[in-house]
Amino acid sequence: MSAETSVPRPREPGLDISDSDLFRGLMSEAPFAFAFFDPDGRFVRVNSTFTELTGHPVELHLDRQPAELLPADLTTLIETALRRIADEALPVTDQRIRTRAENGDTRHWTVSFFPMHGDDGVVGTALFGVDVTERQLNEEVLERSEERYRSLVESQQQLVWITSPSGAVAEDAPQWRAITGQGLEEYLAHGWLDAVHPDDRPGTEEAWREALRGRTMFEWSYRVRTRASGYRHFEVRAVPIIRHGRVVEWVGANTDVTPQREAEEMRGRLTDQLGAAALRTARLQGATAQLAEALTVEQVVQVIIDVGRTALAADHSSVALLDLDRATLKLISSGGTPDTRGEEIDLANPNVMTMAVNSRRPVFAESPDSLRAQLVDAGADEAQISGFLAQTDERAWVGLPLLAAGRALGALRFSFTRTQKISQEDGVFLEALAGQCALAVERATLFEREHKTAETLQRSLLPDRLPVVRGLMLAHRFRSGSRHVQVGGDWYDAFVLQDGRVAAVVGDVMGKGVKAAAGMGRIRNAMRALALTNPPPAAVLTGLDRVFEATEEEEQVTTLAYMVVEPGTGEGTLALAGHPPPLLVSPQGVGLLHETEPGTPLGWATSRKQFRFCVPPGHTAVLYSDGLVENRKRGLDAGLRELSSVVAEAPPEVLSSPNMLLDFLVDHMLSGYEQDDDVTVLAVHVPPATKSD
């Protein structure tokens, strides 16, 4: 028997393969399993390593068939290989088999069969087996790692793709194509960029090219077209795989971040809605505060216009009040309203304001088409509607009824030069604004009515003219605190007594409105009656105290300065009831405040006193209310000092004319201050004696 294999090797000098000792030594020490079979398939030789594969000792194998002592799977593998070699005389290689050792461990082998050729052909078959258990275990570990990686990627909804070093698609990405709907040929031809949203593609492509040039990590986000023709948001990260300083491929992973983006957008919308709600609330609070300070309808209208411009960004604002008797809306502020004729709007003439008043509901027209449809439903003429829309730049309209306790007071109109989406929240804000405006209009209307009544009453109780008396000149000035504030209780009077002397008085009934004016009228009439009966100032004030206790409320405070002066000489007497002292102005411009006890207001239990008060010829006595010297920024004491000093600034011609003097004092004392009270001033001037006198 020859030991030659199917691939003969040259014999080495001095080495005889037939040397049995040498052959046994090689086989016993070889790290691989070896077995030799004769042509009948019987074991001829095996080494000890082969016994690890079979689990039987060497001697048990010799001259036996594999089926006699080996397991069925190993027997089948050996017999199949022996038959193929007998038929084809070709090697059978890399056959895998798994065995179990005595300790229970599983071993993995790779076995190969080679025909042994002799002079007469194949004389036997040699089996060589290699223990590949460690390699098999490594492969299993690697496979498990790949499975874990694949599961992790799939669980994170990541789409993995690979490109060549130049960025071209290198292999299929089934997950990517399952999302995008791209066919394999399409994907391989055009790549992943073809599925990116057209708006995102230029920036994405430029960033990808930049990463390719710089061999740096590519991180980007874009929208990807899906199979359903929608778009989803993806974030991508791709890294270059570098070997020996060269990029061999790029590996990228796309993560679907659509849920996060949608959540962010939802949070953004909620934040915007909350911010808008807070802004609307702040604007409504601001408008309410401004409306609360508005006293007259004119002031309310101005606030409404300002709110329309600032809070609503309206281009035009209009306010109209309802005249039920005439069934019209009277425009208080037209605001450039082009769909009205004149200052009055007939309620039968359809527009956003009349529709709001007639229906008692807001009217929202977000576009010209919306306005046209609503006006047609209200009975407006098509030609008039077309003419109006053709001549105006307005493109959206809001009409709001002004309702107080369900009663219509008028309407507001806001318009915009662009179409305007009116959300439900905007509608709630506008209705709340209209409610506040209605309350302000109602309050201002009542105030103006009361103001007008009180002012008429006050004017009627003041003398139309002062008496003309030889040897005495009288002058007065009355300046209301503001035409927007309620009238007060300031009053003045001057009249001739039965003995020829002149009584002069300035009083102040604290408070505002009709109540103060009525109180002033009662005190003035009582004072006249008492003075004509018993003219001394102390007696008059004592009588007024009794009248006050009988007719006025305890909390009412009334002060006055009352003097009686003799024409020509200026001799007189004075009594004060809690009132500022009179000012005596000399021809030289020296102003002196009369030093006397101020007394107490009327109705207070006290012993009234009167004092001598002389107005020498050429001098002027000035009686005044506290509005001349006192205001929010200037106290009474400071005002009295300033009054005395102002006189020194008057030129000579002013000092000799009581009318000019009063104008000078009022103008200078109010200069630089906001007038917040009525100012009443009465001058008693005694002309200098002449030679004829």
Helix content: 25-40%
**Which strand order spans the largest sheet, edge to edge or round the barrel?**
12-11-10-15-14-13
Largest beta-sheet characterization? 6 strands, antiparallel
Distance between the termini: 182 Å
Percent of residues in beta strands = 25-35%
- Backbone structural class: alpha+beta
Shape: rod-shaped
Number of strands: 25
The number of distinct helices, counting runs of at least 4 residues, comes to 20
Mean pLDDT: 84
Radius of gyration: 57 Å
Unreliable spans: 1-17
Keywords: Hydrolase
Domain PAS: 19-89, 145-215
Organism: Microbispora siamensis
Protein name: PAS domain-containing protein
Throw out a few tags for this protein.
PAS-like_dom_sf, six-stranded antiparallel β-sheet, alpha+beta, PAS domain-containing protein
Short summary of the structure?
It holds the Pfam family PAS_4. Helix content is 40%, strand content 26%. By secondary structure, it is of the alpha+beta class.
Can you describe this structure?
- This protein is α+β, with helices and mostly antiparallel strands and about 700 residues long.
- Helices cover about 40% and strands about 25% of the residues.
- The chain contains 20 helices and 25 strands.
- A six-stranded antiparallel beta sheet has the order 12-11-10-15-14-13, sandwiched between helices. It has a five-stranded antiparallel beta sheet with strand order 2-1-5-4-3, with helices on both faces. A five-stranded antiparallel beta sheet has the order 16-25-24-21-22, with helices on one face.
- About 30% of the residues are buried.
